[in-house]
Design a protein that fits this description.
Blueprint lengths: L5 H8 L2 H12 L5 H7 L4 H8 L7 H10 L3 H8 L16 H28 L6 H26 L9
Length: 164
């Protein structure tokens, strides 16, 4: 059995981003690998080696990957242990009122999801185990992000609600 080179072993050990990207692209099939490689300006084999953690992603590759595969989890990976919250920008093709309504509706859905998960977890026993807490925290992060998107939609310069 041959030993893995130190740099390769290190890349495999500490690349949670590559594991997440693998999950989204290969497991969840969010976008075909060949199409994504083309869009981000990489060869199929270069992208494949990064997803399999043989080679590390470069910052510019990560930026292009997020632009072509706008899944919030990719950005949340980098903000997970920070005081920052990920917020989606309002769709520039929607008017301000539609953007605000969309953001508020998403925030309400995410908040209801948090309440639902908490109630379900509490009904299953007297204490919350680590899985319950992880599920609840995931929902809380999504609700925080949705509320931050409401903030962005309202903060747009022309965001004025009509008077009814």
């Amino acid at each position: 059995m041959t030993a893995m080179p130190r740099a390769a072993a290190s890349a495999k050990a500490d690349c949670g981003f590559a594991l997440l990207a693998y999950q989204l692209i290969i497991v969840e099939k969010k976008v075909p690998l060949a199409d994504l490689a083309l869009k981000i300006g990489m060869s199929y084999s270069a992208l494949h080696s990064r997803l399999n953690r043989r080679t590390r992603f470069h910052p510019d590759e990560i930026r292009r990957l997020i632009a072509c595969l706008p899944d919030q989890r990719l950005v949340q990976y980098f903000t997970a242990d920070s005081p920052f919250v990920v917020a989606a920008r309002a769709d520039p093709l929607k008017d301000d009122v539609a953007s605000i309504r969309t953001a508020v509706a998403r925030a309400m859905r995410e908040t209801i999801d948090v309440m639902s998960v908490v109630v379900t977890s509490l009904e299953s026993g007297l204490t919350l185990d680590h899985r319950d807490r992880a599920t609840i925290l995931k929902e809380v992060h999504e609700a925080e992000s949705a509320m931050a998107s409401v903030h962005l939609a309202l903060a747009r310069p022309a965001a004025v609600m009509p008077i009814e």
